[in-house]
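User: Could you write out the 3D structure of this protein bound to flavin mononucleotide? I've included everything you need below.
Assistant: Certainly. Input first, then the structure.
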Amino acid sequence: MITIVVGTNRKNALSATIAEYYQKILAEKNIESQILSLIDLPADFTATALYENNGKNNSFNLFREAFNKHQKFVFIIPEYNNSYPGVLKAFIDGMDYPSGLEGKKCALVGISAGVQGASIALSHFTDVLNYLGMHVLALKVKMGEVHIHLKENQLTHKVYNEMLYAQADQLISF
Ligand SMILES: Cc1cc2nc3c(=O)[nH]c(=O)nc-3n(C[C@H](O)[C@H](O)[C@H](O)COP(=O)(O)O)c2cc1C
């Protein structure tokens, strides 16, 4: 089971479209997956699930449990202000400490409206995950101008497709 995390809570986020696309790639390879989207986080989680409230918000705990239970993840990371979304950091800050991510494995996919493909965002997030003991696959997919290359939820960019398929293969055997 691979858990695909949509790294934003923005409505109609293209990150969610890419998560579904990644799920289809995994299905073609007969790999079971599930999508976990930050849009489903309880809206008040920063006030009710962090710090002294750690573990007290049952809706948030469902997310923590999903992380504790599974071993492999894909994070779809949109570029927000040259980094990854703040809600994703707040989410990570609400995880079990010491880390519930220690020893687990993940692959990162970055997307952006501009040309960077969330390159710097992926570096920032890799630093956080490595600090928590999570192993990040070396092959990171960076997809700039993603809105131009998505047509009816299909990714039309040849190289982006090749990179996603190669990454999925590597994650399966990671
Ligand atoms: C708060 C915010 C900040 C953003 N900052 C950047 C940015 O620094 N560089 C960029 O190329 N796109 C930026 N974008 C555009 C996103 O990369 C774009 O919306 C893309 O589709 C991925 O985000 P999404 O999953 O929310 O759709 C930003 C979008 C938001 C909502």
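The longest helix spans residues 158-173.
User: Perfect, thank you.
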